[in-house]
Amino acid sequence: MREGIERKGLITVMETIGIEVGNSNVKIGLFYKERLVKVITFPTKDIECFKIPAFWNNRKPVLIGIASVVPQINTLLKEKFSIYKKKVFFITPSLCGIPLKIKNPDRVGVDRVLNCKAAIEFFNSDVVVIDIGTAITMDYASRKGFFGGVIIPGPFLWKGALTSTALIKDIKEVRAKIPGKDTSEAICSGIRYGIPGAINSIVSVYKKRYPSVKVVLTGGGSKEFNKGIEFDIMRKYLGLEGLGMVLYGMYGKTRRM
């Protein structure tokens, strides 16, 4: 029998729903306590067409939280999840339960902070989190706080920067080869080997400064580039897992209020 929470003589399963909104994709997670049990992913640009699957209609979450870096779709997302008759919380960096040791903490992406929160919990160590998405972030954090990081363009932006030139318009997806025998091969090789090279170079600086650091890889591009990157563990839904931890902690606080 699954554990539950006693409330007015009833037993309710401890479920929460977390929604992580990125520039490219929206990830929706169903959690039992802090454990991620189901994920739905869809393109951020298709938010207006999104419908909650029938499987989710009979869920009874105690909390719903949205962590978004695309604020223009927040209102629409909130409306779509109003079917659960629960208050929807917008999760900001300051609600993530980790001190923000940076300039302008209200402007940091909440996804970066959630990534680090989850990684610290998994390792109980200081961490560097590499998130390969539209941009690539490489952030450092420890139990003492989130200390910021490094941002470089992601694979799509690398390619987009080159296709904006006058002579390079049509880049075909081909197998990376060095040396590339035509423009497409040369560009695909530059991306395939250049991104891991840049990441490894930056991580080496972190490791010199923080010798005990653990390196965690996540993001939509992690599967494509993981073979060329030095890391300790890969977590596909790291930010979503961090969001589940925050929601579980928030529910404990709301019950005591």
Distance between the termini: 28 Å
Biggest sheet architecture: 5 strands, mixed
Shape annotation: globular
Q: What's the alpha carbon Rg, rounded to whole Å?
A: 20 Å
The averaged pLDDT comes out at 87
The chain-level structural class is alpha/beta
Name the poorly predicted regions: 1-12
Could you tell me the strand content as a percent range?
25-35%
Give structural attributes.
12 strands, alpha/beta, five-stranded mixed beta sheet, 257 residues, disordered N terminus, 33% helix
Summarize the topology.
Elements: E1 4-7, E2 10-13, E3 15-21, E4 25-32, E5 35-43, H1 54-57, E6 63-68, H2 74-80, E7 88-90, H3 110-123, E8 127-132, E9 135-142, E10 145-153, H4 155-163, H5 183-209, E11 214-218, H6 222-225, E12 233-234, H7 238-256
